[in-house]
C-alpha cells in the first residue's frame, strides 16, 4: 500500500467501455503528475499503469438476470472486499463508472463511511428504471455525464451535474480519417478498394457472445451465399482471447477473418457492421460506418428489459443521440437471421442508402462535445486528488 501522503482513489470500472475511460483518466493523472494511488475494479491494461486490482473487469462484466445470479458469489466477494478496503484506507474519492446495480449498492456503503462519491458515465436512467434517480440524489455527490441531453435530465431532478464530453472522441485520431491509411490497413488483409467488408461485433461479455454470436455467424452465411464476393470479419473486442472465440465458432461457419486490433482501426477496415447494442454502436457511428444494431438476451432478462424500458423509443445509442432511427435496430425475436440479413442486404444493394446513412452518422461528431474529456473530468474532481 502506498504511503498516506499519496491520495487514495477507489475506482469501479467493470465494463469494457468504462475500462477504456478509466484508463485514460489514469494516463491523464500521470501526465499532470498528480500523485494518486487508484484501486478497485479494472483491467489488466489499467494494472500495467499502476492500478491496484481488487476485481477484474473481465470477470465481472455480466449482463442479464440469470448471468448475474451465476456470477453472484464472485461479485459479492469483490463488493465486500471493496467496502472493507474503503473503511481501512479512507479514500479521498470514490469514482464510479456505469455498472449501476453494483455501483448504487456500493455508493450507499460509501456514503455511510462518509466518503465523497462521483459518478462518471451515467447509467441510462433517462431510458429505464428512472426511479433510481432517488438513489442518485441520496448517495451521489456529483454526476459527470457524456451526453448533452443527460444534463437536462439531471438538472430537472436537482442533481449536481457536469457535462464533460464523450471520452471516445479522444480515440478518433487523424489516421482514422485518412483514406490512404484505410487502404493500407485493408491491404494487410488482402482487401482492395472495391471489396465490401461486413464486420461482425457480437459484444464483449460472455453472455453477449452466447446470445449474439451464433445469430451473427448465420447472418454472415446467408449474405455470403447470396454475395460470394462479400468479405467477412469477426471483430474481437479487447480483453477477449482469440482462441476462446475460435472455440465458439460452429464447425461449418463461413470463412471469417478473425481480427483483434484497436477497435477504431478494425472499424476503419469495414464497410458495414452487424453490431450488438452497446458502446460499440457509438464507436461504429463515430467512424461513419453503416450498421444494423441487434441484441439478444435470455428470455427472463428480455422480459424484464421490455417491462422496465418505457421512456424511450430506441435502444441503439446512435439513434438515441440523434433522436431518430438512423440505422435499423432489432431486439430479441426481431433480431432473427431473416430480418437482420434483409436489413444488411439493403445496404449491400443500395449505394445511395449507404451514403445517406454515412452523412447522418456524421452528425454525431458535433453532438458529443469536444475532445478532452479526461482533462475535464480531472478538473471536475481535482479537489479530491490533492
Structure overview:
The chain has 386 residues and is α/β, with parallel strands linked by helices. The protein contains 18 helices and 13 strands. It has helices at 16-31, 44-48, 57-60, 65-89, 100-112, 133-139, 148-156, 179-187, 206-226, 242-248, 263-269, 279-286, 299-308, 317-322, 337-349, 351-361, 373-380, 382-385; strands at 7-13, 36-42, 52-56, 93-97, 117-120, 142-145, 161-163, 197-201, 231-235, 257-259, 272-276, 291-295, 329-331. The strands form 2 sheets. It has a 7-stranded parallel beta sheet, with helices on both faces. Strands 10-9-8-11-12-13 form a 6-stranded parallel beta sheet, sandwiched between helices. Strand 4 (93-97), helix 5 and strand 5 (117-120) form a beta-alpha-beta unit. Helix 4 (65-89) runs parallel beside helix 5 and helix 5 runs parallel beside helix 6 (133-139). The two termini are 18 Å apart. The model has no long low-confidence stretch (mean pLDDT 88).
Give me some keywords for this one:
386 residues, alpha/beta, seven-stranded parallel beta sheet, six-stranded parallel beta sheet, 47% helix, 16% strand, globular
Amino acid at each position: 500500500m502506498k504511503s498516506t501522503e499519496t491520495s487514495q482513489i477507489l475506482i469501479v470500472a467493470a465494463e469494457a467501455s468504462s475500462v477504456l475511460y478509466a484508463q485514460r483518466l489514469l494516463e491523464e493523472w500521470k501526465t499532470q503528475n498528480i500523485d494518486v494511488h487508484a484501486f478497485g475494479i479494472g483491467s489488466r491494461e489499467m494494472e500495467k499503469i499502476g492500478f491496484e486490482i481488487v476485481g477484474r473487469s473481465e470477470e465481472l462484466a455480466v449482463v442479464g438476470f440469470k448471468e448475474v445470479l451465476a456470477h453472484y458469489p464472485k461479485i459479492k466477494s469483490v463488493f465486500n472486499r471493496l467496502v472493507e478496503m474503503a473503511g481501512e484506507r479512507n479514500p479521498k474519492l470514490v469514482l464510479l463508472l456505469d455498472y449501476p446495480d453494483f455501483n448504487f449498492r456500493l455508493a450507499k456503503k460509501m456514503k455511510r463511511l462518509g466518503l465523497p462519491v462521483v459518478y462518471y458515465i451515467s447509467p441510462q436512467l433517462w431510458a429505464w428504471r428512472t426511479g433510481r434517480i432517488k438513489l442518485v440524489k441520496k448517495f451521489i455527490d456529483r454526476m459527470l455525464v457524456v451526453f448533452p441531453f443527460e444534463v437536462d435530465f439531471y438538472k430537472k431532478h436537482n442533481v449536481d451535474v457536469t457535462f464533460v464530453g464523450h471520452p471516445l472522441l479522444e480515440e478518433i485520431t487523424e489516421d482514422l480519417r485518412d483514406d490512404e491509411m484505410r487502404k493500407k490497413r485493408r491491404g494487410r488483409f488482402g482487401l482492395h478498394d472495391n471489396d465490401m467488408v461486413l464486420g461482425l461485433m457480437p459484444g464483449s461479455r460472455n453472455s453477449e457472445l452466447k446470445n449474439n454470436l451464433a445469430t451473427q455467424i448465420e447472418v454472415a452465411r446467408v449474405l455470403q451465399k447470396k454475395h460470394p464476393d462479400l468479405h467477412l470479419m469477426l471483430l474481437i473486442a479487447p480483453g477477449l482471447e482469440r482462441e476462446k472465440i475460435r472455440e465458439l465458432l460452429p464447425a461449418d461457419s463461413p470463412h471469417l477473418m478473425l481480427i483483434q486490433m484497436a477497435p477504431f482501426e478494425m472499424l476503419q477496415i469495414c464497410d458495414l457492421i452487424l453490431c450488438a447494442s452497446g458502446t460499440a454502436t457509438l464507436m461504429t457511428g463515430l467512424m461513419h460506418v453503416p450498421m444494423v444494431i441487434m441484441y439478444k438476451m435470455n428470455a427472463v432478462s428480455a422480459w424484464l428489459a421490455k417491462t422496465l424500458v418505457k421512456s424511450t423509443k430506441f435502444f441503439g445509442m446512435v439513434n438515441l443521440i440523434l433522436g431518430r432511427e438512423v440505422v435499423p435496430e432489432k431486439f430479441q425475436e426481431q433480431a432473427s437471421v431473416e430480418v437482420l440479413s434483409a436489413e444488411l442486404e439493403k445496404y449491400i444493394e443500395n449505394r445511395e442508402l449507404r451514403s445517406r446513412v454515412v452523412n447522418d452518422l456524421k452528425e454525431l461528431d458535433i453532438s458529443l462535445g469536444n475532445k478532452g474529456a479526461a482533462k475535464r473530468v480531472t478538473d471536475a474532481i481535482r479537489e479530491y486528488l490533492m
